[in-house]
Amino acid sequence: MSSPAARAADARPEPADPSEPREGRTRRPRRRRPRPRNEAPAVPAGDLPPVEDAELDALAERVPALTLQEAHRLGRRLDTVRRTRDVTARARAGAGIKAAIETAEQRIAARQAAVPTIRYPEALPVSARREDIAAAIRDHQVVIVAGETGSGKTTQIPKICLELGRGVRGLIGHTQPRRLAARTVAARIAEELGTELGDAVGWKVRFTDHVGENTLVKLMTDGILLAELAGDKMLRQYDTLIIDEAHERSLNIDFILGYLTQLLPQRPDLKVIITSATIDVDRFAKHFDAPVVEVSGRSYPVETRYRPIVDLDDPDHDPDRDQLDAIGDAVAELQREGDGDILVFLPGEREIRDTTEALAKRDFRNTELLPLYARLSTAEQHRVFAKLPHSGRRVVLATNVAETSLTVPGIRYVIDTGTARISRYSRRLKVQRLPIEKVSQASANQRAGRCGRVADGICIRLYSEDDFDARPEFTDPEILRTNLASVVLQMISLDLGELTEFPFVERPDPRAVADGIALLQELGALDDRKLTAVGRALAALPVDPRLGRMLVEADRNGCLREVLVIAAALSVQDPRERPAEQRQAADAKHARFNGEWTAGGSTLDAGGSDFLAFVNLWRYVAEQREELSGNRFRRLLRDEFLHYLRIREWQDLHAQLRQAARNAGLALNEVDADPDRIHMAVLSGLLSQVGLRDDGPERGDRNKDRRSTGREFLGARGARFMIFPGSPLAKKPPRWVMAAELVETSRLFARTAARIQPEWIEPLAGHLVKRTYSEPHWSRKRAAAVATERVTLYGIPIVVGRSVDFGRIDPETSRDLFIRHALVEGDWDTRHRFFHANRELLEDVEELEHRARRRDLVVDEETLVAFYEERIPAHVVSGRHFDSWWKKESRKHPDLLDFTEEMLRTAQAAGVDRSAYPDHVEAGGLTLPLSYAFEPGARSDGVTVDVPVAALHQVDPTPFTWQVPGLREELVTALIRTLPKQLRRLYSPAPDHARAVLARLQAGQEPLLDGLERELGRMRGVEIPREAWELDRLPEHLTVTFRVVDEAGREVARGTDLEALRRRLAPKVREELAAAGVDIEKTGATTWSFGTLPREHPIRRGSHTVTGFPGLVDRGTSVDVRVFPTAAERDPAHHRGVRRLLLLETSSPVRQVQRDLDNAAKLALSRNPHGSVAALLDDCVTAAAHHLIAAAGGPAWDERSYARLRKLFADRLAATTLQVLHAVRGVLVVWHRVQAQLSDLRAPVLAAGVADITAQVNALVGPGFATAAGANRLADVARYLEAVERRIEKLRADPARDAEWTAQVRVVSDEYAAELAALPPGVEPGPELREIRWMIEELRVGLYAHPMRTRYPVSIKRIQKAIDDLA
């Protein structure tokens, strides 16, 4: 996060030690303008003589000899005195100026005396050109000195300026791109001048100022000079500026040169010397219209050798040779050249580690391998630069930090890989990238110059000469490859005019300027190219604008104390060291700060946040600093892999930032801040560096790398990045993350990251987000139009699917939705009288459309919309707006919004007979409501009748076969069209025949199909069978739908098949009847204790009266009184219930009967289908009881009739049981013979006949057969078994004939089975249907046992007629 502002932090006053106790939010003391150094004290008025103009003129003549700053200041004071009318004030001011001039003259004399004796090293090339350089400086305001590395420009030009008399009235400012260079160059010049460092030659970098009263030459970083512009726009403390290493074209250098271009016309006394080792001389000369003085080459010649990694021109080249092999071969080659250290240039730390390992494996003799890169610890850097004697050869593996004016001592050989990581700003991603690129020719020559300082050198380039020639001559200036937000902020702050007009040496890309402006707008610093309050605060803070924005937000969130620590940490190099050989141990030490950490009595859980880890580290270091002595503290830092100087730098910057924050009006918080609030403050500066985790490839995206699934993040503008592996969040990435840096190396990585919540983003990025709205629709709940909002920040969705009020977004559409949905369609919850009256009137008119199945009887929706639009003002877009308007309007025009029936009906509505579509229908003694729906394809389309569930079995289906009068003709027409073609053509045209046949019928007197079959058949003399009607071809709306409802009117079921509904809902019907008949039902009765049972019981369910049928139910050991839905279900159950109750109250005759049986009878009865004699005897008793009840006229319904039956049972049950038992014995005797004969029929040809006989016998004689057949039928059962015996004899003789008879019997037996299956659940066969079964048995006697006689004449036709008569 470097920037001109961040790198210019040095110029601000250094505050107190950062380890002092925490401060609360206190009011800042009033600031007073400080008195300039060494200013003469104020002179008391006393009896001073008046000051004449001549005296002032004399003072003015002495001013130009003073220092530039004092001359300007005192000159302005003299001008003020000349304008002063007050004699006393004028005298006092004049005396003060005179004293100040005298003091200033003493100071200028002291500075003049401080100029040391100047000597030049004759060995340096620049010494030979010092006269030419001096002449150029004397005669021109700007001079460009161009010379190769080693020429001595940096150290000798300040001395030439001193010799010219510069540096006395103002400082000779000498800028260096790096702090290390500023310090070492200052020391070198002071040494050559024979003075102490800090006297004639001083230096100033961030946090360190060694410039005294008599300092003539001031070495400093270019960031220091840049920062001084804020307080000294005219740079009056300098009479000469030397901009060194201008070839680097850093952002600071380009900005300073552009600023000087504007300043020089206003400061004709200011001299500017621009120096560089390799420089685009023509560009600078043209820009400043300045002369160029070129200095000859290096101190020693350098031989350049080209050794490409893979030399395609060499027929013996190894295609698999890599860079590590090439470096190893080059080291081996240089070792053969003689003594001297080797400097190897590599692009990054990883390559340095890989190369170190590769060279170590080669085991070069007496060779020490030393890494050199920016993150290296101080001790390891000291090993490289120390001028200590050493044995053997050193191989220094360095990044491009070694290209600067710093000299690595003892270097005679250079190996140049030709690549470097060069910071570039991606305009697409809006992030800073660090790709590995080929260096320019200038950089390559600079690297070669590193080995010509001490002796003849050799530079081996691991690329071809053609490759070198094809490279760009110079590296792109930083201004063309970095974000310009800081530059833009400073230019606007310094009021330097329009950005496009600023005289940059090389004008930046307008898109880069736009990006810088965009970043400042993102941070809220600019509003229409003017600084906002946030922007002014950012300009006052010596940090990158992003970090400054964090501090401003931290002040609002009450967490400035913590964010100051974070901002300072992000502005300096990471103090945590990771030595290559101890990386694991270092990571373990540093990991402590990623979780909970307690210091000073408070605990902060970093939760994996890299930002909060800095806060924990800060608190730990401060705590240890207070407890330990200086040496022990340093040892602790070293043992815990913390860089002492970087910690100091962090503390110094924190102190400076704290003071700058106070000056900007920001206040520290007294209590510990919540981690979320800290992160929100940090987020304010990183809005374009947030990411949403990509949880997997979308469908169809098969080319996406699944290995990164769940670890890759979607960033701003489509960027995709991963969290840097060193972060604790890398192993388990959160859903949302923010990062202090997005840096592209092998891929785009997020460095210094933390988990965030998406809801934090929108409040901070309200001016940046894009909002899109989709699916605008009416919301009944909100009484307003709403839309689905999607909020994105640089393409990242931060809000998805949020419903928002659409009225403020699109009032016109919202008004239309309100009118259409709320007022016209009625989708609104309101109490307005007109609304409900209009809805009722509209629904009434629309109901006629549903009944008549037409859409032309009511005015269309647009007519109603127009009605409301004419009357409701445009600002009414929701229910809330309407309520507010109507509250006032209804007082003046209460009928303004009322509908009338005339306006709603069309002319066609007059031709519709409403009586043809009744509201109710009579069926089964019930009046059932009808509803209509004209919704083709919908479940409710057509006519629907509501049937109470309790009355489901009572409803007569006949009226519903006729449909309502308005649809009856359409129904009959459709039915005719379902007939087969040979019949259908007899009734064409179908509508005419439908009208004709309906004229012959009386609606509701019979099922419609019965009448149609009869009358249509008569009309054409044909017979229409029931199966001819293809009812499934009928349009659905012509079949009445039965909607079964409970007592509360809730739908239970619906369908068009009434019988199917009855079967399905039988349990529900029973439940309803039980609930309704609770006053009559009873359980567990063992005697008649319930008075008289009514044959019918009226039940009120809702608005209907339903008939229930009470009766008894046999429960084995007791009986229940229950209400049945139909008499058909009740009667057989009641008969059994009365029988059970009588048997419970009558002594069992079983013992008496058993006593009367002889042994033969007992033997015959022992083999029975019941499984035991006891079960058989129970069956006989039950059959006898059934017979007695039937003989007495049926079951009892009251206590009196029950008593008669009870007496009958007491008198005759035993005798009747004995009679039944004798009849059963007769049946079993024949059954035994049949079973024996069947066991002998084993021939396969007889199998079908045997199976049919077995099924017949099992049906006749099974468990409970006596009761099932009845006492009067037992003789017939014995006869049927005797007929089976005769059938068996005939089966043996002629199986084919038996099969023919079986086929004939199956015709009627199948029809009988179908009738049984059609019975509703719980309904037993009636006497007529049971008789069909015995008719079929008589038919078997007639077919199989002829000449045995049947009880009555029987045939297949007689049986079929009996079945037909059942209907």
From TrEMBL:
Residues 134-297 form the Helicase ATP-binding domain. Coiled coil: none annotated. It catalyses: ATP + H2O = ADP + phosphate + H(+). Residues 323-495 form the Helicase C-terminal domain. It comes from the Bacteria. Residues 1-50 are annotated as: Disordered. InterPro entries: AAA+_ATPase, DEAD-box_helicase_OB_fold, DEAD/DEAH_box_helicase_dom, HA2_WH, Helicase-assoc_dom, Helicase_ATP-bd, Helicase_C-like, HrpA_C. GO terms for molecular function: ATP binding; hydrolase activity; RNA binding; RNA helicase activity. Belongs to the DEAD box helicase family. DEAH subfamily. This is RNA helicase. It comes from Pseudonocardia cypriaca.
